[in-house]
Amino acid sequence: MSPKGDAFIVANRSNPGVPEVKSQSSGCLTAKSGYLLSIFCPLSCILFILLIAQLAGCVSDEVDEQSALASYQQALSDKGPQQRADPLQSLALLKPIPTPDGILEDVEIVIDPNTGRKIITLTIEQAIVRALANSPEIRVVSFDPSIAKQDITKAAAEFDVTAFGSMNYEQDDNPVNSIFQPGQSDVRLLESGIKQKGVTGSEWSLSYALTRSWDDLSNRSLPTRYEPILAFQVKQPLLRDAWKQTNLAGVNIARLNHDVAVLGFRQKAEDVSTQVISAYWRLLQARRDFEILQKLLERTRQTFTKVLGRQEIDATDVQIKQMAASAKSREAILLQASRAVIDAQDALLRLMADPQVSLLDELEILPQTSPAVMTAELEQSDILRLAMKKNPVMQQARVAVAVADINIRVAENQEMSRLDLIASSRLQGISHSQGSAQDNFNRGDYVSYAVGLSFEFPLGNRQREAELLRRRLERRKAVSTLQNLADQVAIQARGRMRLIETNLAEIQLQADAAEASRIHLQAVEDSEPVRERLTPEFLLVKLQAQAALAEAQRAHIKAIVDFNISMAELAQTMGTVLELRQVSTALPAISERTDE
Question: Cα angle at 391 between 267 and 72, to 5 degrees?
């Protein structure tokens, strides 16, 4: 413990002595009260001003909850975890339970009469709104802002007014060897009051106490006496622990932590929305691939049928086996494409977590939204500026720097010496009965006050100096982290911009390739009826032309899907996913329906 130098300077005025019973007065203002006010008024004014300042400095725990994102977060937090079936059953946790107050309209489901499977037509807006309403990943983080808000309330509660009171009874029976010491005494105390810590660091209290005392001291004027006392005390730090920026540090940090929680919730909502967009387009791509490969298999089987039809003319066993092998190979490829459709569908179902269409259902999802191909100009400077400003990771890093700044200011304040201003005032009365003691008190006959300074200087102060250095290093680390993240986000944004440009160029190239492959296959098929004989070389050319067309069509749809996914991922880097048309319309819908 560091050695300290202490000094205490005090000015004190009081009216000592045991009073006599005063003459009765018809009012509280007597001739003596003018003299009393001349002494007590200046201090009373100072204390009254301090009291008003403290009461006016009550700290609010309110946060801005007017945005669509805040309403969405609050709606999810209020609903709590998603209702699912009995967890004691093995598969129950995979089956969400529809609630009577469902927040979404049901999707249209058609039962296939041949297979009995559910067939669902789904738009990308429907997929996104269901994911935002039901996603367990978003539900998990939706509670964080509400929890962080309670931390603001806890920090602000430090400045609430506190009521206190006490009741005490004490009876003593002591041996005495002096006529100036009582042997027996009886003291009863009732006290109540209020106190508060102010935003400037001051602490004030106002209390009223009534004491009834009796003792057997023979030379005491009032063996039984009543003493009402009204006391006011205030302590205002002037250096360490003083002023708002130090005392509101906990509240301000709690607010910043709430901002971090909101940003974390927003980041998760944007991540899930991006995943849903990606999963939706991947499902569309998988279904288009399946359709293309199915068409390829049909063409191969048609060719196989033609070869079998010419078995008696010019088709040899080699040609027949060649076609059979190609058909079987393409059946296997189609089987893999079918599995890819189911995998893509399950990925979308997991993100949606919708009670109407769960992972346990046998169903088929048919995407209805067609992917768009936009040729909007992408200005690199605008994209980087948005990424630096709105990316949730960047915003969280900036909040970390702001928290470090607050911690530095607090550490700098704590490094100071302690100098406190202490002031108090006391109004009291005393008499042989409670009524006359209260009259004595009401007239304000006995007033005391004290004003002083308390000073403390730690000679070593190594602990606080080390804390200040630590906080400064933490800020440097936070700034370095911010700069590192800025570089990473910028590289990611530039990479996704280039990917979009590549996808956009590839779309046209693959479209041209698909058209060229179609023309080539058509020319091969047109030449088939006029050929003198069916050769293995011709069949190979035909099979290759069919495969080339299928691959070109698959590459074309892949380029379109990659472009749309890249656009969503670029919006994720910029922090604008929730501003996309498909997403921005979902948030109000969820919040409004949940409030109902």
Answer: 35
- Does residue 319 contact residue 373 with C-beta atoms inside 8 Å? no
**Integer CA distances (angstroms), 450 to 43, 229, 425, in order:** 9, 15, 6
Pick the closest to residue 586 from 65, 33, 76, 101 (CA basis): 76
Q: What tokens does 506 get?
A: 């590839």
CA distance 343 to 127: 16
CATH of 93-153+251-400+478-595, one of 2.30.30.30, 3.30.450.150, 1.20.1730.10, 1.20.1600.10: 1.20.1600.10
SS (H, E, C) 17-56: CCCCCCCCCCCCCCHHHHHHHHHHHHHHHHHHHHHHHHHH
User: And the tokens for 240?
Assistant: 């360490």
Q: What pLDDT does residue 376 have?
A: 61
Number of C-beta neighbours around residue 301 at 10 A: 15
Whether the Cβ atoms of residue 328 and residue 107 lie closer than 8 Å to each other: no
Q: How confident is the model over 388-408, as pLDDT tens digits?
A: 999 999 999 999 999 999 999
Answer with the residue of higher pLDDT: 377 or 79.
Answer: 79
Give residue 205's identity as a one-letter amino acid code.
S
d(CA 60, CA 37): 37
Residues 6+ apart with CB under 8 A from 584: 68, 578
CA neighbor of 393 nearest in space, from 457, 322, 481, 319: 481
DSSP class per residue in 478-526: HHHHHHHHHHHHHHHHHHHHHHHHHHHHHHHHHHHHHHHHHHHHHHHHH
- CA of 45: how far to CAs of 50, 55, 196, 197, 446, in Å? 9, 15, 19, 20, 18
Per residue in 518-531, pLDDT tens? 999 999 888 877 66
Closest to 134 (Cα-Cα) out of 585, 582, 586? 586
Both tokens assigned to 75? 């709606």
Q: What is the pLDDT of residues 54-97, one digit of tens each?
A: 554 578 878 877 788 888 888 888 887 776 665 555 555 556 66
Closest to 588 measured CA to CA, from 576, 574, 573, 578: 578
Name the β-bridge partners of 234: 204, 423
Q: Where are the domains of the chain?
A: 93-153+251-400+478-595, 167-175+182-198+202-240+423-456
C-alpha to C-alpha distance for 405 and 589, rounded to whole angstroms: 39
CA distance 131 to 126: 9
How far CA 398 is from CA of 151, 185, 186, 491, in Å, comes to 20, 66, 64, 19
Burial class (CB in 10 A: 0-12, 13-18, 19+), 31: exposed
Q: With 0-12 CB in 10 A as exposed, 13-18 as middle and 19+ as buried, what is 86?
A: exposed
**Is the overall model pTM greater than 0.85, yes or no?**
no
